[in-house]
Amino acid sequence: MKIEIWSDVMCPFCYIGKRNFEKALAQFPDSDKLEIVWKSFLLDPSVPDIATESYEDYLVKRKGLSAEQVRGMLKNVTQMASEAGLDYHFERAVMVSSQKAHQLIQFAKSRNLGNEAEERLFYAYFTEGKSIADHDTLIQLGVEIGLDAAELQAAFTDEQYAYQVSQDIQEARNIGVNGVPFFVFNRKYAISGAQPPQAFLETLRKSFGEWQKLNPQPKLDIQQGNSCTIDGVCE
What we know:
Layout: E1 2-7, H1 12-26, E2 35-40, H2 55-63, H3 67-83, H4 99-110, H5 114-128, H6 135-144, H7 149-155, H8 159-174, E3 182-185, E4 189-192, H9 197-214
Parallel strand pairs: 1-2
Antiparallel strand pairs: 1-3, 3-4
């Protein structure tokens, strides 16, 4: 069963939602029958590649709140992240465009490393304070999760991956996504926001139960004999 997750790596609730979703997966016995697909979403395409303001200053200007109000809001989010097992440092966050980071994710998905790319970029942004728009930094992060540096470098100039980012964003608009994280289960149920693990688990059980009825696994009466397995073991 397919689960699609629209997310932006500069969104604090997306990382919290990812971790809570993973806690639900750990309690779900059929997690090996799930196909999890990460989708790109740009919260603010106007953010530049080079930081001109802090995360706090950006929110003050964008939300029209006082610096004190924003600090209180970030403190609450940091506490929420801590409860999910994450270590946020907004004072380190580099306020830059996430476009190139999403191109890295799209390339990583082609190598079955989409989840690893999401995790590494979230950690780099919210904990380490790395610039997710810096070319050399992204190459380094990609290599850390097992991507080839030369191939990744080419991916930043290949229009295919930028196009895939824009396609994900258009698809989000088409199904009514106006905020992230946004989790879609089997194109029938959706969860918006960083919900607690139990909410994810309940939706997993419901959607998978319905999917399983429509996609029953064949039950064969097998008579065993000498054979070779896909692991190369013959006996």
